[in-house]
Design brief:
Distance between the termini: 27 Å
Structural class: alpha/beta
CATH topology of the largest domain: Alpha/beta knot
Number of helices: 6
CATH class of the largest domain: Alpha Beta
Largest sheet: 7 strands, parallel
Number of strands: 12
CATH architecture of the largest domain: 3-Layer(aba) Sandwich
Length: about 240
């Protein structure tokens, strides 16, 4: 039987009976959850409560939480994705998939090939998308969604093992331990980073790596880069 996951308020998951407010219970009703069906409550503060639906009480429902887990589905170290800002649908998709892949922070990056009309803060929208993705994929906490930053600021603040997707670079098949400092992955916007930007990234300690012989859309490159980076770090 599949498990229905519901997002609840931070810090609200605990062992025992929990009454879900109407706005949360609505999702359970849409999913046609019945008494006795398994439910997981994700509180977006690092806890997941596993239990079952006890009963419906009007537009609310009561859940019996039997166990509380923390840190489930999270990477062993910080995983930061810096992604050149894209048009709305593409960046929304990238936020969803990066969340599913375990990113602990997503930073929209403003670089030379980002079109000015796209540089609009949408943190609230991205946070909602990330929260929904957390509930879907079984993570215990959403990534931090940063405000858009200029590329030089992103490079300066990067930590851990730093990798930058570069269509002209060779793949990196060998293991690359992070040394405990986490992973930072940089992917440019449509059209990629300029030669000058790639040079600045290398000067900041970023290691260029290729993603194969085909030309990928920026949002696809972000998914591929996160996957390859975690494999290289030995996390998968």
């Amino acid at each position: 039987m599949s498990v229905t996951r519901l997002v609840v308020g931070a810090g609200s998951v605990q062992v025992g009976e929990v009454v879900l407010p109407e706005e949360v219970a609505r999702h359970a009703r849409v999913a046609r959850v019945r008494e006795g069906d398994p439910i997981e409550l994700v509180d977006l503060d690092g806890a997941v409560g596993a239990g079952h639906l006890l009963r419906w009480e009007g537009k609310r429902c009561r859940v019996q939480v039997e166990t509380v887990l923390t840190g489930r589905g999270e990477p062993p170290e910080p995983l930061v994705l810096g992604l050149g800002l894209l048009h709305t649908a593409a960046f929304d998709w990238a936020v969803e998939k990066a969340t599913e892949l375990g990113a602990t922070a997503i930073v929209p990056v403003l670089s030379a090939r980002v079109q000015g009309r796209l540089a609009r803060p949408r943190e609230g929208r991205w946070e909602r998308i990330a929260a929904a993705a957390v509930a879907q994929c079984g993570r215990s906490r959403p990534p931090r969604i940063a405000a858009p930053v200029l590329l030089p600021a992103f490079l300066q603040g990067a930590e851990g093992l730093r990798l930058v997707a570069d269509g002209g670079a060779a793949p990196l098949p060998q293991p690359m331990p992070t040394g405990g400092g986490g992973l930072t992955v940089l992917v440019g916007p449509e059209g990629g980073l300029t030669e000058g930007e790639l040079r600045a990234a290398r000067d900041a300690g970023f290691i260029p790596f290729g993603l194969g012989p085909r030309t990928l859309r920026a949002e696809t490159a972000a998914v591929a880069a996160l996957t390859v980076a975690q494999q290289l770090a030995g996390w998968w």
